[in-house]
């Protein structure tokens, strides 16, 4: 598996088996849902988040451009993390 910082790590089969989760109930949820994605994420491809948001009833997508899985936090540059936090706080204020 490719990590957010570009390294490859060995993933054991038991880990992959544990990821076999029934998401059916999540798609029946009727409340507001926030999905956050870095468009340069190689750990969890952004396309997966886009597919999930299409299946949710009341979903909002926050897409941070030029951000990876950690929103570049591993680089020590927190500009993308701060950008994400601004969007999340605004969404929470509207939806709570």
Strand and helix layout:
Layout: H1 13-18, H2 24-28, E1 32-38, H3 46-55, E2 58-64, H4 79-95
Parallel strand pairs: 1-2
What does this structure look like?
By secondary structure, the chain is of the alpha+beta class. The protein is 40% helix and 15% strand. Strands 1-2 form a two-stranded parallel ribbon. α3 links the parallel β1 and β2 (58-64). The radius of gyration is 15 Å and the shape is flat. 12% of the residues are buried. The mean pLDDT is 85. It comes from Faecalitalea cylindroides. This is Peptidase S9 prolyl oligopeptidase catalytic domain-containing protein.
Brief synopsis:
By secondary structure, the chain is α+β, with helices and mostly antiparallel strands. It has helices spanning 13-18, 24-28, 46-55, 79-95, and strands at 32-38, 58-64.
Question: What are the salient characteristics of this protein?
Answer:
AB_hydrolase_fold, single chain, 4 helices, 15% strand, alpha+beta, two-stranded parallel ribbon, 2 strands, 96 residues, flat
Strand content: 5-15%
Helix content: 25-40%
Multimeric organization = single chain
User: How would you characterize the largest beta sheet?
Assistant: 2 strands, parallel
Structural class: alpha+beta
Kindly report how far apart the N and C termini lie.
36 Å
Radius of gyration: 15 Å
**Strand order within the widest beta sheet:** 1-2
Low-pLDDT regions = none
Number of strands: 2
The number of distinct helices, counting runs of at least 4 residues, comes to 4
On the 0 to 100 scale, the average pLDDT is: 85
Report the order of strands and helices: HHEHEH
Shape: flat
